[in-house]
Design a protein that fits this description.
With about 350 residues, this protein is an alpha+beta fold. The chain is built from six helices and 17 strands. The chain starts with a strand and ends with a helix.
Length: about 350
């Protein structure tokens, strides 16, 4: 497999668009990210492994149930309150006459919009500053306004605005891979975990060991200073609240709904390589899988042709998590705590 040469982003999967929107106002540090599919929708699956998930419409993705395709996925801050953002996405899709047809009029549709949330309540100081339907609408409109294969903004944006991971500032990350067959696999993550993404002994992001090439090890003196500062910041924090890592892994391959669910499940391995520990009772780790159906799986490999997609999905999620940790240039400090960024602590190492 080879790295995609376009944007190394989820949008390298043809037909997918990404939009972000933030919550406005003093004391706000939250937002919403929408992954918008092409006209006609996408095949989708989901796998929830965190012990404290906040989700909406995930049961609709069960292969045993009736919905065959969806048009958008919502990743949002605001904990369970933030799931209201999906209502704004539904309203926009209804206006576009996109959704499950339920009547004789083409306008009679019910958009199915799966969503999952991260906990960031109060990170900006105002517990009530969280995404709502207007935030979701702004994010889907932003996605719809982008060009095909547009680059994806990463770091402290959208659902990653108030994200933290192991005491560091987290955020949104993305990556993509092209297989030898020509099939593209992409991932987008929101990293907001109780666990750490950085090895405390070396300062190297865990996922760097699986991202290709040899990790760059920080100077020991730089690492020791970073560890002291991070320990000081953590000591001032309250006990860890509910946290979550969310991911959307997508491919342009033709997949069944059962295969999409399998892809969502194996993509959790990508989280486990990059964040330790994971899937705790105060996590809501959730992975959505999308398939746009542009390319057939290689027929000569039979059913095992899916294996390359599964492996690439996990690897690409890992790389996206590393990117999310490295993306924010600055941390934040305020009523919600002090969270330095990796780049503040380690420079460009």
């Amino acid at each position: 497999m080879t790295k995609h040469q376009q944007h190394d982003a989820l949008t390298d999967v043809a037909g997918l668009r990404v939009g972000h929107a933030g919550v406005r106002g003093a004391g706000a540090r939250s937002g919403t990210t929408v992954v918008l599919g092409p006209e006609g929708g996408v095949v989708a699956g989901v796998d929830v492994r965190g012990g404290g998930p906040g989700t909406r419409e995930t049961d609709a993705l069960d292969p045993r149930n009736v919905v065959q395709r969806i048009d958008a996925v919502v990743l949002t801050g605001g904990s369970a309150y933030g799931l209201d953002a999906a209502a704004g996405v539904m309203a926009w899709l209804e206006e576009q006459r996109r959704g499950v047809r339920v009547g004789p009029d083409p306008a009679h549709v019910v958009p199915v919009v799966p969503a999952a949330c991260v906990f960031d309540l109060g990170r900006g100081g105002d517990f009530s500053a969280r995404p709502d339907a207007s935030t979701g609408r702004a994010a889907v409109e932003a996605a719809a306004a982008t060009d095909a294969h547009a680059p994806v903004e990463t770091g402290a944006v959208g659902a990653g605005t108030g994200a933290v991971v192991g005491g560091l500032r987290g955020g949104v990350g993305t990556a993509s891979t092209v297989l030898e067959s020509g099939i593209t696999v992409g991932a987008l993550v929101v990293v907001n975990a109780v666990g750490s993404a950085v090895d405390p002994e070396t300062g190297v992001p865990y996922g760097s060991h699986f991202a290709g090439g040899r990790p760059a090890y920080p100077d020991p003196a730089v690492h020791e200073a970073a560890r002291r500062r991070l320990d000081e910041a953590r000591a001032k924090l309250a006990p860890p609240p509910m946290n979550t890592t969310l991911a959307v892994v997508a491919t342009d391959a033709v997949l069944t709904r059962a295969q999409a669910q399998k892809l969502a499940g194996t993509a959790h391995d990508g989280i486990a390589r990059a964040v330790r520990p994971v899937h705790l009772l105060n996590d809501g780790d959730t992975v959505f899988a999308l398939a746009t159906g542009e390319r057939e799986l290689p027929s000569e490999a039979g059913p095992l042709a899916l294996n390359d997609v599964l492996a690439a999905g996990a690897d690409t999620v890992t790389r996206a998590i590393v990117q999310a940790v490295l993306a924010p240039a600055a941390g934040f400090s305020g009523p919600g705590g002090e969270y330095p960024s990796y780049r503040e602590l380690y420079g460009e190492a």
